[in-house]
Design a protein that fits this description.
By secondary structure, the protein is an all-alpha fold. It has one domain. It is 70% helix and 1% strand. The chain is built from 14 helices and 2 strands. It starts with a helix and ends with a helix.
Length: 379
Protein backbone atom coordinates (compact mmCIF):
# COMPACT_ATOMS: atom_id res chain seq x y z
CA UNK A 1 0.00 0.00 0.00
CA UNK A 2 1.36 3.39 -0.99
CA UNK A 3 1.34 5.96 1.79
CA UNK A 4 -1.20 8.72 1.24
CA UNK A 5 0.75 11.85 2.03
CA UNK A 6 -2.33 14.03 1.61
CA UNK A 7 -3.82 12.42 4.73
CA UNK A 8 -0.64 13.21 6.66
CA UNK A 9 -0.83 16.82 5.51
CA UNK A 10 -4.48 17.05 6.56
CA UNK A 11 -3.63 15.78 10.03
CA UNK A 12 -0.68 18.18 10.44
CA UNK A 13 -2.54 21.23 9.12
CA UNK A 14 -5.67 20.37 11.12
CA UNK A 15 -3.54 20.22 14.28
CA UNK A 16 -2.23 23.70 13.54
CA UNK A 17 -5.81 24.82 12.92
CA UNK A 18 -6.86 23.51 16.35
CA UNK A 19 -4.04 25.54 17.89
CA UNK A 20 -5.27 28.69 16.11
CA UNK A 21 -8.89 27.93 17.04
CA UNK A 22 -8.07 27.67 20.73
CA UNK A 23 -6.15 30.94 20.55
CA UNK A 24 -9.35 32.46 19.13
CA UNK A 25 -11.33 30.99 22.05
CA UNK A 26 -9.46 33.34 24.37
CA UNK A 27 -11.00 36.32 22.54
CA UNK A 28 -14.42 35.29 21.23
CA UNK A 29 -17.56 35.74 23.40
CA UNK A 30 -18.05 32.02 24.11
CA UNK A 31 -17.36 30.46 27.50
CA UNK A 32 -13.82 29.15 27.92
CA UNK A 33 -11.34 28.33 30.67
CA UNK A 34 -9.73 31.78 30.65
CA UNK A 35 -10.94 34.86 28.80
CA UNK A 36 -9.34 38.10 27.76
CA UNK A 37 -10.52 41.28 29.51
CA UNK A 38 -11.95 42.32 26.13
CA UNK A 39 -13.66 40.04 23.60
CA UNK A 40 -14.18 40.41 19.87
CA UNK A 41 -17.75 39.66 18.70
CA UNK A 42 -16.98 40.15 15.01
CA UNK A 43 -14.01 38.87 13.02
CA UNK A 44 -12.57 36.41 15.53
CA UNK A 45 -16.03 35.04 16.29
CA UNK A 46 -16.80 34.64 12.57
CA UNK A 47 -13.52 32.77 12.02
CA UNK A 48 -14.23 30.60 15.06
CA UNK A 49 -17.64 29.67 13.67
CA UNK A 50 -16.17 28.86 10.26
CA UNK A 51 -13.50 26.60 11.75
CA UNK A 52 -15.91 24.90 14.14
CA UNK A 53 -18.01 23.51 11.28
CA UNK A 54 -15.29 21.21 9.88
CA UNK A 55 -12.31 21.13 12.25
CA UNK A 56 -13.06 18.18 14.54
CA UNK A 57 -15.07 16.25 11.90
CA UNK A 58 -11.99 16.17 9.64
CA UNK A 59 -10.01 14.49 12.45
CA UNK A 60 -12.62 11.73 12.75
CA UNK A 61 -12.83 11.33 8.98
CA UNK A 62 -9.06 10.82 8.72
CA UNK A 63 -9.14 8.53 11.78
CA UNK A 64 -11.72 6.34 10.03
CA UNK A 65 -9.50 6.11 6.96
CA UNK A 66 -6.46 5.29 9.07
CA UNK A 67 -8.40 2.58 10.89
CA UNK A 68 -9.02 0.82 7.60
CA UNK A 69 -5.35 0.85 6.62
CA UNK A 70 -4.25 -0.12 10.13
CA UNK A 71 -6.45 -3.23 10.06
CA UNK A 72 -4.91 -4.29 6.74
CA UNK A 73 -1.59 -4.82 8.53
CA UNK A 74 -2.68 -5.73 12.08
CA UNK A 75 -4.92 -8.18 13.86
CA UNK A 76 -7.78 -6.86 15.96
CA UNK A 77 -5.72 -7.36 19.12
CA UNK A 78 -2.71 -5.53 17.70
CA UNK A 79 -4.96 -2.73 16.48
CA UNK A 80 -6.52 -2.16 19.93
CA UNK A 81 -3.18 -2.51 21.72
CA UNK A 82 -1.76 0.23 19.54
CA UNK A 83 -4.87 2.36 20.14
CA UNK A 84 -4.59 2.01 23.93
CA UNK A 85 -0.91 2.93 23.84
CA UNK A 86 -1.15 5.82 21.36
CA UNK A 87 -4.42 7.24 22.73
CA UNK A 88 -4.92 5.90 26.24
CA UNK A 89 -1.52 6.79 27.71
CA UNK A 90 -1.60 10.47 26.56
CA UNK A 91 -5.19 10.69 27.81
CA UNK A 92 -4.32 9.45 31.31
CA UNK A 93 -1.21 11.65 31.37
CA UNK A 94 -3.28 14.63 30.31
CA UNK A 95 -6.03 14.00 32.88
CA UNK A 96 -3.60 13.65 35.78
CA UNK A 97 -0.84 16.13 34.86
CA UNK A 98 -1.86 18.61 32.14
CA UNK A 99 -5.48 19.21 33.10
CA UNK A 100 -5.28 20.24 36.81
CA UNK A 101 -3.37 23.51 36.14
CA UNK A 102 -5.98 24.46 33.54
CA UNK A 103 -8.87 23.82 35.94
CA UNK A 104 -7.04 25.83 38.61
CA UNK A 105 -6.57 28.80 36.27
CA UNK A 106 -10.22 28.57 35.26
CA UNK A 107 -11.34 28.65 38.89
CA UNK A 108 -9.12 31.67 39.64
CA UNK A 109 -10.10 33.58 36.49
CA UNK A 110 -13.81 32.92 37.16
CA UNK A 111 -13.51 34.08 40.79
CA UNK A 112 -14.23 30.61 42.15
CA UNK A 113 -10.92 30.26 44.03
CA UNK A 114 -8.11 32.40 45.36
CA UNK A 115 -4.81 30.98 46.45
CA UNK A 116 -1.90 28.94 45.13
CA UNK A 117 -2.13 25.96 42.81
CA UNK A 118 -0.78 23.59 45.48
CA UNK A 119 -3.40 24.71 47.98
CA UNK A 120 -6.09 24.09 45.36
CA UNK A 121 -4.79 20.77 43.94
CA UNK A 122 -6.48 18.47 46.53
CA UNK A 123 -9.79 19.91 45.25
CA UNK A 124 -9.11 18.52 41.79
CA UNK A 125 -10.80 15.26 42.76
CA UNK A 126 -13.91 16.96 44.15
CA UNK A 127 -16.80 16.24 41.79
CA UNK A 128 -16.82 15.61 38.05
CA UNK A 129 -16.03 18.49 35.72
CA UNK A 130 -18.97 18.78 33.35
CA UNK A 131 -18.90 22.34 32.07
CA UNK A 132 -16.91 25.57 32.20
CA UNK A 133 -17.65 27.44 35.41
CA UNK A 134 -19.29 24.41 37.05
CA UNK A 135 -18.62 23.09 40.55
CA UNK A 136 -16.88 19.78 39.74
CA UNK A 137 -13.13 19.71 39.13
CA UNK A 138 -12.12 16.22 37.99
CA UNK A 139 -12.00 16.42 34.18
CA UNK A 140 -11.92 12.74 33.27
CA UNK A 141 -11.97 13.58 29.55
CA UNK A 142 -8.85 15.74 29.82
CA UNK A 143 -10.62 18.88 28.51
CA UNK A 144 -9.37 19.18 24.90
CA UNK A 145 -8.21 15.54 25.04
CA UNK A 146 -11.83 14.38 24.74
CA UNK A 147 -10.96 13.58 21.12
CA UNK A 148 -8.57 10.83 22.28
CA UNK A 149 -11.18 9.33 24.59
CA UNK A 150 -13.95 9.40 21.98
CA UNK A 151 -11.69 7.95 19.29
CA UNK A 152 -10.62 5.18 21.67
CA UNK A 153 -14.26 4.35 22.40
CA UNK A 154 -15.15 4.41 18.69
CA UNK A 155 -12.24 2.11 17.91
CA UNK A 156 -13.34 -0.35 20.58
CA UNK A 157 -17.05 -0.51 19.72
CA UNK A 158 -16.57 -0.61 15.94
CA UNK A 159 -13.77 -3.21 15.87
CA UNK A 160 -16.05 -6.31 15.80
CA UNK A 161 -18.06 -4.71 13.00
CA UNK A 162 -14.91 -3.74 11.07
CA UNK A 163 -13.44 -7.24 11.37
CA UNK A 164 -16.68 -8.81 10.19
CA UNK A 165 -17.41 -6.43 7.34
CA UNK A 166 -14.50 -5.13 5.30
CA UNK A 167 -15.29 -2.33 2.84
CA UNK A 168 -15.13 -3.18 -0.83
CA UNK A 169 -12.78 -0.36 -1.80
CA UNK A 170 -12.90 -1.26 -5.49
CA UNK A 171 -16.63 -0.79 -5.72
CA UNK A 172 -17.40 2.37 -7.64
CA UNK A 173 -18.43 5.42 -5.65
CA UNK A 174 -20.66 7.79 -7.59
CA UNK A 175 -21.38 11.48 -7.18
CA UNK A 176 -24.93 10.78 -6.09
CA UNK A 177 -23.64 8.65 -3.21
CA UNK A 178 -21.81 11.63 -1.69
CA UNK A 179 -24.94 13.76 -1.72
CA UNK A 180 -27.00 10.94 -0.19
CA UNK A 181 -24.42 10.49 2.57
CA UNK A 182 -25.07 14.05 3.73
CA UNK A 183 -28.70 13.23 4.63
CA UNK A 184 -27.95 11.22 7.83
CA UNK A 185 -25.65 14.02 9.00
CA UNK A 186 -28.38 16.61 8.51
CA UNK A 187 -30.91 14.45 10.38
CA UNK A 188 -28.48 13.86 13.26
CA UNK A 189 -27.72 17.57 13.60
CA UNK A 190 -31.47 18.29 13.92
CA UNK A 191 -32.75 15.37 16.01
CA UNK A 192 -29.95 13.93 18.17
CA UNK A 193 -28.59 15.70 21.25
CA UNK A 194 -26.67 13.21 23.41
CA UNK A 195 -23.29 14.75 24.19
CA UNK A 196 -22.07 17.89 22.45
CA UNK A 197 -18.30 18.13 22.03
CA UNK A 198 -16.45 20.59 19.87
CA UNK A 199 -19.63 21.93 18.30
CA UNK A 200 -21.12 18.57 17.26
CA UNK A 201 -22.93 15.71 18.92
CA UNK A 202 -20.88 12.58 19.52
CA UNK A 203 -23.18 10.61 17.19
CA UNK A 204 -22.24 12.98 14.35
CA UNK A 205 -18.55 12.13 14.85
CA UNK A 206 -19.33 8.40 14.88
CA UNK A 207 -21.03 8.60 11.48
CA UNK A 208 -18.12 10.63 10.06
CA UNK A 209 -15.71 8.01 11.46
CA UNK A 210 -17.70 5.22 9.76
CA UNK A 211 -17.81 7.20 6.51
CA UNK A 212 -14.03 7.48 6.64
CA UNK A 213 -13.67 3.73 7.02
CA UNK A 214 -16.26 2.56 4.49
CA UNK A 215 -16.47 5.30 1.86
CA UNK A 216 -13.44 7.60 1.94
CA UNK A 217 -11.15 4.61 1.39
CA UNK A 218 -12.73 3.64 -1.93
CA UNK A 219 -10.42 3.89 -4.93
CA UNK A 220 -12.84 6.15 -6.80
CA UNK A 221 -13.39 8.56 -3.88
CA UNK A 222 -10.65 11.00 -4.81
CA UNK A 223 -11.58 11.18 -8.45
CA UNK A 224 -15.23 11.83 -7.54
CA UNK A 225 -14.48 14.64 -5.05
CA UNK A 226 -12.13 16.25 -7.57
CA UNK A 227 -14.83 16.14 -10.23
CA UNK A 228 -17.33 17.68 -7.81
CA UNK A 229 -14.92 20.32 -6.50
CA UNK A 230 -16.52 23.35 -8.24
CA UNK A 231 -19.94 22.36 -6.89
CA UNK A 232 -18.81 21.45 -3.35
CA UNK A 233 -16.70 24.62 -3.17
CA UNK A 234 -19.73 26.72 -4.06
CA UNK A 235 -21.97 24.88 -1.60
CA UNK A 236 -19.39 25.17 1.18
CA UNK A 237 -19.03 28.94 0.71
CA UNK A 238 -22.76 29.62 0.56
CA UNK A 239 -23.71 27.38 3.49
CA UNK A 240 -20.82 28.58 5.66
CA UNK A 241 -21.68 32.25 5.08
CA UNK A 242 -25.35 31.50 5.78
CA UNK A 243 -24.51 29.67 9.02
CA UNK A 244 -22.02 32.27 10.29
CA UNK A 245 -24.33 35.21 9.54
CA UNK A 246 -27.36 33.37 10.93
CA UNK A 247 -25.54 32.50 14.14
CA UNK A 248 -24.07 35.95 14.70
CA UNK A 249 -27.35 37.76 14.06
CA UNK A 250 -29.14 35.73 16.72
CA UNK A 251 -28.98 31.97 17.13
CA UNK A 252 -32.58 30.67 17.17
CA UNK A 253 -33.44 28.48 20.16
CA UNK A 254 -35.67 25.48 20.68
CA UNK A 255 -37.17 23.44 17.85
CA UNK A 256 -38.27 26.38 15.77
CA UNK A 257 -38.19 26.26 11.99
CA UNK A 258 -35.29 28.72 11.94
CA UNK A 259 -33.19 26.54 14.27
CA UNK A 260 -33.86 23.45 12.14
CA UNK A 261 -32.83 25.31 8.99
CA UNK A 262 -29.65 26.64 10.61
CA UNK A 263 -28.71 23.18 11.94
CA UNK A 264 -29.27 21.68 8.49
CA UNK A 265 -27.17 24.36 6.83
CA UNK A 266 -24.39 23.80 9.37
CA UNK A 267 -24.34 20.05 8.66
CA UNK A 268 -24.30 20.66 4.90
CA UNK A 269 -21.50 23.20 5.37
CA UNK A 270 -19.49 20.61 7.31
CA UNK A 271 -20.02 17.91 4.70
CA UNK A 272 -19.16 20.13 1.73
CA UNK A 273 -16.08 21.49 3.51
CA UNK A 274 -14.83 17.95 4.16
CA UNK A 275 -15.20 17.07 0.48
CA UNK A 276 -13.39 20.27 -0.54
CA UNK A 277 -10.54 19.54 1.89
CA UNK A 278 -10.08 16.00 0.57
CA UNK A 279 -10.18 17.17 -3.04
CA UNK A 280 -7.71 20.03 -2.61
CA UNK A 281 -5.33 17.99 -0.46
CA UNK A 282 -5.22 15.23 -3.08
CA UNK A 283 -4.48 17.77 -5.80
CA UNK A 284 -1.97 19.94 -3.93
CA UNK A 285 -0.58 17.88 -1.06
CA UNK A 286 0.16 14.38 -2.39
CA UNK A 287 3.87 14.99 -1.82
CA UNK A 288 6.34 14.34 0.96
CA UNK A 289 9.20 16.43 2.26
CA UNK A 290 11.17 16.93 5.47
CA UNK A 291 8.55 19.31 6.88
CA UNK A 292 5.82 16.72 6.52
CA UNK A 293 7.98 14.03 8.08
CA UNK A 294 8.77 16.26 11.06
CA UNK A 295 5.22 17.59 11.41
CA UNK A 296 3.69 14.13 11.16
CA UNK A 297 5.73 12.96 14.14
CA UNK A 298 5.09 16.15 16.11
CA UNK A 299 1.33 16.40 15.48
CA UNK A 300 0.17 14.24 18.40
CA UNK A 301 2.49 15.83 21.03
CA UNK A 302 1.57 19.24 19.63
CA UNK A 303 -2.13 18.46 20.02
CA UNK A 304 -1.70 17.12 23.56
CA UNK A 305 0.24 20.08 24.90
CA UNK A 306 -1.09 23.03 22.90
CA UNK A 307 -4.09 23.94 25.07
CA UNK A 308 -2.26 23.95 28.43
CA UNK A 309 0.27 26.35 26.90
CA UNK A 310 -2.45 28.62 25.46
CA UNK A 311 -4.45 28.66 28.71
CA UNK A 312 -1.32 29.49 30.74
CA UNK A 313 -0.26 32.31 28.44
CA UNK A 314 -3.81 33.65 28.30
CA UNK A 315 -4.06 33.55 32.09
CA UNK A 316 -0.89 35.66 32.34
CA UNK A 317 -1.89 38.33 29.80
CA UNK A 318 -5.68 38.46 30.31
CA UNK A 319 -5.68 41.71 32.30
CA UNK A 320 -2.87 43.49 30.49
CA UNK A 321 -3.82 46.68 28.66
CA UNK A 322 -2.81 45.40 25.23
CA UNK A 323 -5.01 45.52 22.19
CA UNK A 324 -6.70 42.33 21.01
CA UNK A 325 -4.49 42.29 17.92
CA UNK A 326 -1.28 42.50 19.95
CA UNK A 327 -2.46 39.80 22.37
CA UNK A 328 -3.53 37.51 19.53
CA UNK A 329 -0.18 37.83 17.77
CA UNK A 330 1.61 37.26 21.07
CA UNK A 331 -0.49 34.20 21.83
CA UNK A 332 0.00 32.68 18.37
CA UNK A 333 3.75 33.32 18.11
CA UNK A 334 4.83 32.66 21.70
CA UNK A 335 2.54 29.64 22.03
CA UNK A 336 3.84 28.05 18.83
CA UNK A 337 7.48 28.73 19.78
CA UNK A 338 7.09 27.31 23.30
CA UNK A 339 5.35 24.15 22.07
CA UNK A 340 7.92 23.65 19.29
CA UNK A 341 10.88 24.07 21.65
CA UNK A 342 9.34 21.74 24.21
CA UNK A 343 8.70 19.11 21.55
CA UNK A 344 12.07 19.37 19.78
CA UNK A 345 14.34 19.45 22.83
CA UNK A 346 12.40 17.43 25.40
CA UNK A 347 9.56 15.25 24.09
CA UNK A 348 11.24 13.89 20.96
CA UNK A 349 14.50 13.02 22.76
CA UNK A 350 13.26 10.88 25.64
CA UNK A 351 11.62 7.49 25.06
CA UNK A 352 9.48 7.65 28.21
CA UNK A 353 8.22 11.17 27.47
CA UNK A 354 7.56 10.21 23.84
CA UNK A 355 5.29 7.46 25.13
CA UNK A 356 3.38 9.92 27.34
CA UNK A 357 2.65 12.08 24.32
CA UNK A 358 1.45 9.30 22.03
CA UNK A 359 4.64 8.80 20.03
CA UNK A 360 6.42 5.60 19.19
CA UNK A 361 9.60 4.61 21.01
CA UNK A 362 12.95 6.26 20.41
CA UNK A 363 13.88 6.17 16.74
CA UNK A 364 17.49 5.62 17.75
CA UNK A 365 16.55 2.48 19.67
CA UNK A 366 14.37 1.26 16.82
CA UNK A 367 17.25 1.64 14.37
CA UNK A 368 19.50 -0.22 16.82
CA UNK A 369 17.02 -3.10 17.07
CA UNK A 370 16.81 -3.30 13.26
CA UNK A 371 20.62 -3.41 12.99
CA UNK A 372 20.81 -6.20 15.56
CA UNK A 373 18.16 -8.22 13.71
CA UNK A 374 19.99 -7.79 10.41
CA UNK A 375 23.30 -8.73 12.05
CA UNK A 376 21.83 -11.90 13.55
CA UNK A 377 20.31 -12.87 10.20
CA UNK A 378 23.65 -12.57 8.43
CA UNK A 379 25.42 -14.52 11.17
Amino acid sequence: MNRQYDLDWIRVLATLAVFIYHCFMFFNPWAWHVKNNETDPTYITALSLFMSTWLMPIFFAVSGINSYYALQKRSGRQYMKERFVRLGIPLVFGVMILTPPQIYMERVSHGQFSGSFFSWYPNYFDGVYLDIGGSGNFAFVGLHLWYLLVLLIFSLITLPFFLKKRPDIYKELKSLHLFVLSIPLIILSIVVDVVNLGGWDISFYLVIFLYGYFFFTKTTFKSVVQRLLPMTMTISILTTVFFVVGFMTGMPSGNSGASIILASVKALSCWSCLLVIFALSDIKLSISNKWLDYGNKASMPFYVIHQPVIVTLGFLIADLEWSITVKLVFLLVSGFVIISIFYHFIISRCSFIRLLFGMKGSTRKIRGIKRNIQKNLYE
